[in-house]
Design goal:
The protein has 709 residues and is of the alpha+beta class. Helix content is 32%, strand content 30%.
């Protein structure tokens, strides 16, 4: 019997470090372990990572050489900023005349508040001429004497002219301190925001370098030869060397791991992912098979850090019920954990004997309206998990499942107090909790214009069953709990792709410049270990901001999954029909490759133009792309350039907003190449030719073309 190699994902949380092993071929979960996070060990969190890896290999019966991929996610950078545990930054401003005025203002970053009463430790020095090596050395020495542990160089317009920052970095290199230049952290204009992003990156750099070195040495000593990767805040992973350069990319990476798991394991193409713990729910969006990312706010200010758009609601599985006036008045934000109380539903029936309802203040400054049970076995919290179990919303085998009779016994005293039955009281608890979540979900669906016909709610985290099933029931949106939801974050780390995002501001960008940004992103992920043959690059050109953005993703090995299940023709047809909300008899197969089948139907509406909605379904029976109105055409690689030129010419729209090329996706082999981010016809066609270049002329190509209004 062949033993497949494994992918290992390790998620370092505030309390526990979770590790999982996933079969590298089938992507099935093989084992999971949990160890306490080793904050206070002399090796810090590195010790817990190595301990978790060792126990995982022992449990799964695998050897270190069986590890094909190893990645970890960590909250260390986030916690360092939240706790104010950062290094003193020495900022060297560069410039003369007006430029000097601008850079001297950057000294005000020393006023950035990390925690109440604690500011970012920053020392500032100025050099007029970056090529004056003696002046730079004096500035670096002065900063070091002021306690600087890391140096940053910043100059106006360094995005276009990086020579000054590079000269300062070279001159200051011999001071024994880590050194970065602002243009290396981001290539976007905006001196203030660019430098602030670089300074915050530098503030966590020494601590993260120390941890990286410890983890790297420990993993090597353990005999693992697979390169160590680190979770990014945008849902991908990066090499350890890249993390050493830009540790800021690990900030806010905790929620990103969960949605990466949902994207890869659950294969969401459109929907909302809700990761529910004991106290809160992190809500994020997947749109057209991609996570929603935005520039993150750090220390109260917008940065140039591209991070998952995650919105947090203070409702989780352990959230306590609040009562007043004979009814439920709210749920949370306090949880049973904060109150130091066990969940009532995890007690025994005997523990809950003679239970009566009382109200408490979980914290001294809280209102005294949080409901608890005083019973024979002591005091217990009434939680969202209790209500979900009482209504049978928690599936068999779920992390949060308990004896339903005990859960109903936990709700019964509250129901009696309200003068209602157990089901009604439990429903009112879940209504109050999920209403807060629903408000945020509705906002994100609207903000990202999700397709409501195909959007799904997917729950992850140990408390998933307390929120997602009830929210799905009351909202009418399809919902499910992710498989192995309690370890969805380390699964996401194990399955994540190497990712890099390159952004450039290029006024009037031509096709050569756009292709150059694309090539830079592709080269970056290959340099970090991604297999060149499988790299996918999505390019977006924003004509309003002149921003050219290329996002490249790739696996460290070519994935050839031998999944046991492959959907047959009838199953894929039914899936497409359900997504199109029509009868299978009204659905037509428009085109297909070995990996994907394109289905469509026709919607005729009185007084409105006929629409042709399309669904692309993969071999597993998962809808990978849905388009509200599209033209589909089959061709070959050899014929594709001329076919695409004709289609783009026919489907390009012209109006007051300028020229808008159609949104084009190409089905090539096992891939869907998304070219929809480009609005100009010529760069669009140039990108298409780039996708086709390395393929055989007879290979089939399917073009899915969506006219933009």
């Amino acid at each position: 019997m062949t033993t497949h190699r494994i992918r290992v994902g390790i998620d370092v949380g505030g309390t526990f470090t979770d590790a999982v092993a996933v079969d590298a071929t089938s992507l099935e979960l093989l084992g999971q372990v949990k160890v306490p996070t080793s904050h206070h060990h002399e090796d810090g969190v590195a010790h817990g990572i190595v301990e978790a890896l060792g126990r995982l290999l022992e449990e799964t019966g695998r050897a270190p050489e069986d590890v094909a991929f190893l990645a970890h996610g960590t909250t260390q950078a986030t916690n360092a900023l939240l706790e104010g545990d950062v290094a003193t930054v020495g900022l060297i401003g560069i410039g003369t005349g007006p430029s000097a005025v601008l850079t001297r203002r950057l000294a005000a970053f020393g006023k950035l508040e990390l925690t109440p009463g604690k500011r970012l430790p920053l020392a500032y020095a100025h050099v007029a001429d970056p090529d004056d090596r003696a002046a730079v050395e004096r500035a670096a020495d002065a900063l070091k004497q002021e306690g600087a542990e890391v140096l940053v160089a910043s100059e106006p317009f360094s995005v276009d002219r990086p020579e000054g920052e590079e000269a300062v970095r070279e001159a200051a290199r011999g001071r024994g301190l880590p050194m970065t230049a602002a243009h290396e952290i981001t290539s976007l204009y905006g001196l203030h925001k660019r430098t602030r992003t670089a300074v915050v990156n530098a503030a966590i750099l020494p601590r993260m370098l120390a941890t990286a070195d410890l983890v790297d040495a420990s993993i090597t000593k353990a005999g693992v030869t697979a390169p160590l990767m680190v979770m990014r805040c945008d849902g991908g992973v990066m090499s350890l060397d890249e993390m050493r350069r830009r540790p800021l990319l690990t900030v806010l990476s905790g929620p990103a791991a969960g949605v990466a798991g949902a994207l890869m394991q659950e294969r969401i193409s459109e929907g909302v992912f809700l990761e529910t713990g004991g106290t809160s729910t992190d809500i994020s969006v997947v749109r057209r098979g991609k996570v929603a990312v935005q520039h993150a706010t750090i220390l109260g200010k917008k940065s140039y850090l591209n991070a998952l758009d995650v919105r947090t609601v203070g409702v989780g599985g352990g959230s306590m019920v609040r009562i007043g006036g004979g009814k439920v008045t709210g749920v949370g934000p306090r949880s049973a954990h904060i109150a130091g109380l066990p969940y009532a539903c995890f007690a025994t029936a005997d523990d809950l004997r003679d239970a009566t309802v009382a109200t408490i203040k979980p914290m001294s400054d809280d209102p005294a309206d949080y409901a608890v049970l005083d019973a024979a076995g002591g005091r217990f919290a009434i939680t969202m998990t209790c209500a979900a179990n009482a209504l049978g919303r928690v599936p068999e085998g779920d992390f949060a499942r308990c004896d339903q009779d005990v859960a109903r016994a936990a709700i019964a005293p509250l129901a009696a107090r309200f003068g209602t039955d157990i089901d009604d009281a439990a429903a009112k608890i879940l209504d109050a909790g999920t209403e807060q979540v629903r408000t945020v979900v509705d906002t994100m669906v609207r903000d990202y214009r999700l397709d409501k016909d195909t959007a799904v709610l997917v729950g992850g985290g140990g408390g998933a069953a307390s929120v997602t099933p009830h929210l799905a029931a009351v909202s009418g949106v399809e919902g499910r709990i992710a498989k192995h939801s309690e370890v969805i974050s380390p699964i996401g780390v194990a399955l994540a792709l190497v990712r890099e995002q390159i952004e450039r501001i290029i006024p009037g960008a031509g096709q050569e410049q756009i292709l150059g940004v694309r090539a830079e992103a592709e080269a970056a992920v290959v340099a970090q270990g991604a297999a060149a043959e499988g790299v996918e690059v999505e390019v977006t050109v924003d004509p309003q901001t002149n921003t050219v953005r290329a996002v490249a993703t790739g696996a460290t090995e070519l994935r050839t999954q031998d999944r046991a299940h492959r959907a047959d023709d009838d199953e894929r047809l039914r899936t497409a029909a359900a997504s199109l909300k029509t009868d299978p008899s009204a659905v037509e197969v428009l085109a297909g490759t070995a990996a994907h089948t394109v289905y469509g139907t026709e919607l005729r509406r009185r007084l409105r133009a006929t629409r042709h909605p399309v669904r692309i379904v993969d071999a597993d029976g998962v809808v990978r792309l849905h388009v509200a109105d599209a033209h589909v055409e089959s061709t070959t690689v050899a014929e594709a350039p001329s076919v695409l030129a004709r289609l783009v010419k026919e489907k390009t729209s012209y109006g007051d907003g300028g020229v808008r090329a159609p949104a084009v996706r190409l089905l090539l082999g096992s891939r869907i190449a998304d070219l929809s981010g480009v609005l100009e016809p010529e760069p669009l066609l140039a990108l298409a030719r780039g996708e086709l270049r390395s393929r055989g002329g007879a290979e089939p190509v399917i073009a899915v073309v969506e006219v933009r209004s």
